Amino acid sequence: MKVRAAVLREMGLPAPYAQSRPLSIEEVVLAPPGPGELRVRVRAAGLCHSDLSVVNGDRAWPMPIVLGHEAAAEVVEIGPGGSDLSVGDAVVLIFRPTCGACLSCSTGRPALCGPGGDANGAGSLLGGYRRLMAAGGRGGIGAAPDGVLNHHMGCSAFAEYATVSRRSVVRIEPGFGLG
Ligand SMILES: [Zn+2]
Ligand SMILES: [Zn+2]
To answer: What is the mean pLDDT of residues 134-146?
Structure first.
């Protein structure tokens, strides 16, 4: 499906950003979820200093990338093989996927998940896949010629929809509401 997303193609552009405009709102292609993945509709996304740190180059991530790593969302599609979650569930996205099996995860420190950190650094989802592509295959500086876009911390929530690992979301109580 095509979704609108905020794409960053080059870090470190000069301020003021109102003039250099590092983020461009584009229609991009979002691939459907694979096994162990979900597609979610982003209902709200927070703007965090860590997003700015990518824009200004303080924290280098693979380019081009769809930013946004704090969001509340609704599950709209389940990948092949099913899930413990259901379509319609309310979730929050977490910015370090937790594999559930590594040393950190199995000793009660999921925030330090090794494979989760590796996937974040690579700009992929947990499992190594990227589900975002620039429309028309248009890549960014340093991008693969096929136009694949990187994920920001497994989320890429500055978009109407996101395909994410099941291990990048936490279900919240239905009555809590998404606003
Ligand atoms: Zn943050
Ligand atoms: Zn882990």
So the answer is: 57
Complete domains list, the chain, with CATH: 2-176 (3.90.180.10)
- Comparing CA positions, the residue from 154, 121, 131, 141 lying closest to residue 22 is 141
78 CA to middle of ligand 1, Å?
Answer: 26
How far is the CA of 68 from the CAs of 60, 88, 158, in angstroms? Answer: 15, 22, 5
User: Locate tokens 């584009």: which residue?
Assistant: 26
pTM: 0.91
CA of 136 to the centre of ligand 1 (A): 30
The continuous run of DSSP H or E covering 24 comes out as strand 23-30
The edge-to-edge listing of strands for the beta sheet with 161-165 is 161-165, 37-45, 71-78, 90-93, 169-171
Amino acid present at 104? S
- Tokens 């569930």, residue? 89
Residue-wise pLDDT tens digits, 84-117: 999 999 999 999 999 999 999 999 999 999 999 9
Distance 73 CA to ligand 2 centre (A): 23
Closest ligand relative to 118 C-alpha? 2
